[in-house]
Amino acid sequence: MIFDDTYFMKEALRQARLAFDKDEVPVGAVIVWDNKIIARGHNQVEMLNDSTAHAEMIAMTAAFNQIGSKYLPEATLYVTLEPCLMCCGAMYWSKLGRIVYGAQDEKNGYRKTTGSNNPFHPKTEILHGILSEECAQLMKDFFKRKR
Fold first, then answer.
1. Which of 44, 81, 117, 129 is most enclosed, with most CB atoms within 10 A?
2. In DSSP terms, which residues pair with 81 in a beta bridge?
């Protein structure tokens, strides 16, 4: 089996579908270290009544606990939606090695606030657009159901 960005984004999409099924905004994340998933997360804002309970935050907390460190320089975070500015701050301080996201978020993504400025750690590699159509469609389906 090939473990590449598409494979791991599919795993993040599985997490997003868990959120969707729980009537949460369908965002999912996984964190990979040494080609293994060490943490998973999906949005739990409604369930926990916590506006900070984003998929990325939950996955990062699980990863810190898994490896016993506050930094993740060898890790890649896969998330189905462009991170918001709050999550970018946490990603900056965690010193993630790579961040890979699927769909762009015109309304709440970091680029809306930062423009062309990079809010991530200077050593962090950013890649976007992996399975972007699938990630975006899940969001569209969710909000269509809400209307």
1. 81
2. 103
Q: Which of 99, 21, 113 is nearest to 60 (CA)?
A: 99
Is residue 109 within 8 Å of 83, Cβ to Cβ? yes
Q: What is the pLDDT of residue 95?
A: 96
What is the CB neighbour count within 10 angstroms for residue 82? 24
Task: Write down the catalytic residue from 11, 24, 46, 56.
Answer: 56
d(CA 141, CA 128): 21
The kind and range of the H/E element at 40 are strand 36-42
Q: Is the pLDDT of residue 133 over 90?
A: yes
Question: Which residue type, as a one-letter code, is found at position 52?
Answer: T
Q: Residue 147's pLDDT is what?
A: 79
68 dihedral zone (left: phi>0; alpha: psi -120 to 50; beta) = left
Cα four-point dihedral sign 90, 20, 128, 59: positive
Q: Is 24 annotated as catalytic?
A: no
**Per-residue confidence (pLDDT) for residue 76, from 0 to 100:** 98
Look up residue 67 and give its two tokens: 């490896």
